[in-house]
Amino acid sequence: MRRFKDNLLRGLLWFSALLTVAILVVIVGYIFFKGFRLISLDFIFGDYSPTGGGGIWPMIITTIYTIVISLLIATPIGILAAVYLQEYAKQGRLVKMIRFATESLTGIPSIIYGLFGAVFFVATLKLGMSIIAASLTLTIIVLPVIIRTTEEALKTVPHQYREGSLALGATKLQTLYKVILPSAMPGILSGIILSIGRIVGESAAIFLTAGTVAAMPESIFSSARTLTVHSYLVTQEAGDIELAAAIGIVLIVIILVLNLLATFISKKLNKADY
Amino acid sequence: GGNNENEAGSLNEGKDTISISGSTSVGPLAEKLAFNYEENQDVNIEINQIGSSAGITNAISGVSEIGMSSRDLKPEEKESGLDETVIAYDGIVVVVHPSNKVDNLTTEQVKQIFTGKITNWKQLGGDDKEIVVVSREDGSGSRDAFQEIVGYTSGELVKSSIIASGNGNIKTTVATNEHAIGFISFEYIDESISTVKINGVEATAENVLRQKYSLSRPFLFVYKKDHLTDAGQQFIDYILSPEGQAIVSETGAISLH
Amino acid sequence: MASLPIENQTTNNRKSNKKKYFLENVSSKVFLFCALLSVFSLLLIIGFVFYKGSHPFIAEGYSFIDFIFGTDWVPSEDQFGIFPMIVASVYATIGALIIGVPVGLFTAIFLSELAPKSMAKIISPAVQLLAGIPSVLYGVFGLAIIVPFLQNNLGLAKGQSLLAVILVLAIMMLPTIVTVAETAIRAVPKTYREGSLALGASEIGTIFKVVVPAAKSGIMAAIVLGLGRAIGETMAVILVAGNSLIIPTSLTDSMRPLTTNIALEMGYAFGTHQEMLFATGIVLFSFILLLNFVLAKISSRGGN
Amino acid sequence: MSTALLERNKESKEEELSPMNQQIEKATKISVNDLNLFYGDKQALYNISIDIQEKQVTALIGPSGCGKSTFLRTLNRMNDLIDGVKISGDITIDHENIYQSHDVIQLRTKVGMVFQKPNLFPMSIYDNVAYGPRMQGIKSKRELNRIVEESLRGAAIWDEVKGRLKTSALGLSGGQQQRVCIARAIAMKPEVILMDEPTSALDPISTLKVEELIAQLKKDYTIVIVTHNMQQAARVSDKTAFFLNGEIIEYDVTKKIFSNPKDQRTEDYVTGRFG
Amino acid sequence: MSTALLERNKESKEEELSPMNQQIEKATKISVNDLNLFYGDKQALYNISIDIQEKQVTALIGPSGCGKSTFLRTLNRMNDLIDGVKISGDITIDHENIYQSHDVIQLRTKVGMVFQKPNLFPMSIYDNVAYGPRMQGIKSKRELNRIVEESLRGAAIWDEVKGRLKTSALGLSGGQQQRVCIARAIAMKPEVILMDEPTSALDPISTLKVEELIAQLKKDYTIVIVTHNMQQAARVSDKTAFFLNGEIIEYDVTKKIFSNPKDQRTEDYVTGRFG
Ligand SMILES: Nc1ncnc2c1ncn2[C@@H]1O[C@H](COP(=O)(O)OP(=O)(O)OP(=O)(O)O)[C@@H](O)[C@H]1O
Ligand SMILES: Nc1ncnc2c1ncn2[C@@H]1O[C@H](COP(=O)(O)OP(=O)(O)OP(=O)(O)O)[C@@H](O)[C@H]1O
Ligand SMILES: [Mg+2]
Ligand SMILES: [Mg+2]
Known about the structure:
The complex is a heteropentamer, with 1 copy of chain A, 1 copy of chain B, 1 copy of chain C and 2 copies of chain D. By secondary structure, chain A is mostly helical. Chain A has 2 domains: 2-36; 39-271, MetI-like (MetI-like fold), CATH 1.10.3720.10. Chain A has helices at 2-35, 41-45, 57-88, 93-105, 110-124, 131-155, 159-167, 172-201, 204-209, 227-238, 241-269. The longest helix of chain A is centred in the first third of the chain and has 34 residues, at 2-35. Chain A is globular and about 65 Å long. Chain B is α/β, with parallel strands linked by helices. Chain B has helices at residues 7-11, 27-40, 52-61, 75-79, 107-114, 141-150, 167-175, 205-209, 230-240, 242-250; strands at 16-22, 43-49, 66-69, 82-96, 104-105, 132-135, 162-163, 180-185, 194-198, 216-224. In chain B, strands 1, 2, 3, 4, 5, 6, 7, 8, 9 and 10 form a 10-stranded mixed sheet that branches. In chain B, helix 6 links the parallel strand 6 and strand 7. Chain D has a single domain (25-270), classed as 3-Layer(aba) Sandwich (Rossmann fold), CATH 3.40.50. Chain D has helices at residues 14-22, 68-75, 104-110, 125-135, 141-154, 158-161, 174-186, 204-217, 230-236, 254-259, 264-270, and strands spanning 28-39, 42-53, 57-61, 85-93, 96-97, 111-114, 192-196, 222-226, 239-244, 247-253. In chain D, strand 7, helix 8 (204-217) and strand 8 form a beta-alpha-beta unit. The two termini of chain D are 32 Å apart. The chains are: A mainly alpha, B alpha/beta, C mainly alpha, D alpha/beta. The interface between A and C is large, with 103 and 102 residues. The structure holds adenosine-5'-triphosphate (2 copies) and magnesium ion (MG) (2 copies). One magnesium ion binds next to helix 2 of chain D.
């Protein structure tokens, strides 16, 4: 009986994993199948023209801008906020409420963030429709993800490490960046990778704050179009699935590179990676 | 000021920048116009396709110099001092799956289909198949125009109809469903769907201009007079010129002449 | 053992400690500031949504009850009833949870506990890749693959349906759930596994009785974040939901969840219509609060 | 098979050891033959051969890092969990080769273990002790209650925890935790109990109680215990094996090891003159 | 101030204790006065008053759960880290009240600690030992190398790890880990070293080495050690305090405690007749 149950569960575990992999393969496969024909040097590096299909280079640049800026702002704030909630704040009602609110905000549709950004960053702060306004909006979108995953990662660091370090006369801060954060790095990293995904995959919040100008941005105060917004526009209005899929291929490659980079950087930061 | 958001403009070697935002239906057309206009003029045109309402709001608040709309202005919007210029017309065509044998409908039949009075293609001389109605979202310019001309209201629209956002989505939905019927702009017609004659009249630009084909709506540029720069005015003039209108025709929209 | 003169060292310490405490102080302020900044920005959003969304009820005399329980949504005719969408959201969310959570968790468990290292090393990043695919593409995938599949295999007139939404959302939750849960499970100390195995528990028994409960907090985070992803999703859902304004009564009915309503019409909405969409946002937010609350309750009960 | 094999250290005199074994009448429970173990490239055990008798206490002693824990963990195949561990040689329990059988679970049910560091699960005390039996499929509340109480009593911790069985086991002091660990192992009613320094975190009183318990358990169970405490080894064990650098230097009845060891190194070690 | 206060147990005779103290000439390093400690509502220490002399080894003995670790951790304010701990009473080190001063860092630099369970960081052995000095701002590679080697030698572990200083500290055996922990504490050159059963995971040889080390360290440092090993307490300590249920039952020079204790309970405990 027990054995049967074990085997059943084991079967379910295998099944789920296979299912996930199958989904992965089908989706990625579909995107490649639909889009690979459009991929060419000119498609990627050419200049955008509204008549031809290609020239997504400005959008690649814009996409990278938004990712980098959003992460540069959201990662430190998110991690430090999580550190505060987990390591400094008294674990009471207030912290619980903050956590609760944070979690609940992950479920707000991004278009609402977009409208907020359009009112607050674009109009009130007079940033205009710009990469920076979009990045700030995206920062708010990914903050909950980073905070929550970092908190979880911090929780898993054994208490003995903290004691050991403090007993050696290290300050809380030293303990934090020498022992705790390195030990929590894998968890934090997964939060960052999820955030990259969230940023890259976002469209509604971006086109309301950065607009859809299909030209090379001159600065982070320029209005511009990310790859995802581009693919959104072409599916929404033109129904050009091949083009959307081709953009998807480019995005997958970008994410792949960024994820590897993030892993690499965290390994570098984390000398305590044994 | 009308250009407060365009710090980029000053970085750009003193080029004038015209910022335009709004309808995703007008957007592609405006992009092509701008693309051609910029080749000869020392000007930088920013086009943001963010939806008619957002574009109108931007035109009012001054975030954008010009708003693009594919629907008529609401009274409140007019009150805030917006001017409008029709830059083109957009023909709307009823589309079905290519396998569908039905290729001609009367306006009344269209109305009955969209209000749920006719529910099977059999009733229209087609196969014995349930009709799946595909419409745009409430507030959409195409939908407003379509309903007004066909003669039913949003409240009458059959409740089980699929609501798709954007021409592209209607096209994809209809192209993948033998039961479906929907409506899209002329610009997006291709071989993945087949078009339906209305009252025996083919959906072409000439027929619209000759007022034989009734399903069309205007594409608008909206702006506040005092926000409009010389460069902006010149761009509008260009669009209205024969040269500009030629481009309008090229893209599948209907020129003013 | 030879040592530095003690006094010497002590005075050194004292000097540098001042700096340390200063740093300590400053840093804790910085952390607090970051936490407050996050909270502040989140409050701003909540405030924004509430401010916009409550306006019709406070200033324009609309009835909130009619809004919640009304079954007709015709903005152009001033009818704002979102009851069908509430029902649709509840169904879609629960459905996605029922499929996405077990598959995601089991995949995470598999990757962290059963999969050979080399296999996990390939699959985990690949799953994370799924997190970055734009939701529009999920929608396109749903529209081009799932919808016709349902249409043809279930003999439906249209494949845009509750079922299609559930499948797409479940897929979209996967990367978040798998990634967060996998990290949490990996962090469970080895001694727990050893202790259990040494008691003659099977590998599977150990996983479900010791390892997973020990990672409970992280797993809950995974579920909540995954759920948030699913509830907040719009672009993909718009394409596969059908967005019909009816109360879904079966898995094959097309329907319109709250989020879709917002995203679908925001582009053209103006005035009261727009505010009502924000009000929809308030309802959505309350819905999420409720759901998270229930999840928290379930998890704390499961703990003892 | 001879009891102590010192293939690498030719100083040992095998023929002298054999007679000692014959004094012990109990049957062989565990038989280890030419066991070598590597952590990756690093060899941790060299040619270990040893017969462990049924219903006796066998003590493993030796300096830190000599491989006692490693050896102990081969007996219930806990080393399987460590990546890169390679093992050669045979271990049979009840004449069954444990590395050929695929039923590790049955092996580990039969061979219980108490670890060096207490490793209670993050559950209540009760659930910790009931964990094994539950895994065996015991569901009856009464039966579980009985097992939990009996086991906790057996581990000399019942009185201290009976009022808080439902609270987290991790709130206990180190010593208390270790005794609950012992209770948890006893609850399985194994045939063999492996103990890796089970009392190193205990005070003398609890230690005494556990030692008494060991004395009592050995009537029914075969016990292998790693200890750093010479007195303890002398008090509780029937036979003692002295490990050094991954080898067994000497294996004999305990009295002999402590009073009259064959090997100089054993003598140095047990008298504390080592190193 | 008297050394052993047994406010709750009126059986003690303070006037008899005082003369014993006068035999000890060393100055008082740590003075604890009427200390009470609560974990939430649960009182773990009752009216502890004790003077600990400079450059001596003070042993804390007592059954499991009696509060030895808890008391030890008040001396470098490690209990501050636990939520819900309430403390009343005074502790002064070098006449400075450590609970009034705000410089915990300086306190912990001055008062080193070795824990019951080894708690090395997931870093290399080298980085573990160099951790404290680095935190103090020592950056010179040569200086660090010197400190690391010296400390590891001091903890009798240098020879075993010198070839693998850059590998993970978590790959060491339990005993090895604990000795690295001691090295890590020594590396800070504290004035007081608190040791919570530092040798409970060590083999006799390492234990002996550590005990020798303690004997040597006490020339410069004040050492407080918790141990379950009576022999160890007798061997290494100058004075011994016997804890029971959160109180100090008896505190005196070690010889006296083990040969001629005042309290019946102490006698029962040290002779193993307890319980
Ligand atoms: N997982 C591992 N990987 C690599 N080497 C290991 C591992 N575990 C133990 N070792 C090494 O194997 C040798 C034997 O270790 P073991 O833990 O068996 O010693 P021990 O005799 O139990 O010591 P102690 O008395 O300190 O517990 C040691 O040199 C140790 O460093
Ligand atoms: N964090 C805590 N919360 C609540 N109670 C605690 C905590 N730590 C210890 N205790 C309790 O306080 C009492 C004293 O514990 P302490 O760890 O000081 O004992 P000890 O004398 O060191 O025992 P051992 O010899 O087993 O290590 C015990 O009853 C223990 O259960
Ligand atoms: Mg060991
Ligand atoms: Mg203790």
